[in-house]
Amino acid sequence: ARAVVALDEGFVQVTAASWAQTSGGLPGLVQGLRGEPFFLLPGKDGGALRNYALKAECTHLGCIAPWDQSTKRFVCPCHGSQYDEEGRVLRGPAPTALALAHVSLIAGDKVQLSAWTETDFRDDSAPWWK
């Protein structure tokens, strides 16, 4: 997939500053690679953004798995799969972790998503979503 600038719900290009203002320090949904939904993640230790995003679709049947702040997990409303803040499966029936995409900042502080083709840092496996 070709690298793209993330778009918000109004199809406006997302900047790190605009995302930081609207996200409230929580994972936020954007349109990313191939027009698909991805979560941008708040940075750790005061950073604005993490350098990766998570595809928002549950790996069981493709429902959107929103962030549940009370449990600090991504929870699929369809069949109950749960993922930790890095997208690892905590509870099935989801068979695999949420897909990854790289996040970088380009001209004008725009948030760019690009394909993750390297080893999955969460379990040192080849990316299943390639």
Task: Describe, in plain words, how this protein is organized in 3D.
With 130 residues, the chain is mainly beta. Helices cover 6% and strands 28% of the residues. It contains one helix and ten strands, in the order βαβββββββββ. The chain has one helix at 16-23; strands spanning 4-5, 28-31, 37-40, 52-55, 67-68, 73-75, 82-83, 89-91, 100-106, 110-115. The strands form two sheets. A six-stranded antiparallel beta sheet has the order 1-10-9-4-3-2, with helices on one face. The protein has a four-stranded antiparallel beta sheet with strand order 5-6-7-8, with no helix packed on it. β7 and β8 (89-91) form a beta hairpin.
Entry summary:
This protein is mostly beta strands. 6% of the residues lie in helices and 28% in strands.
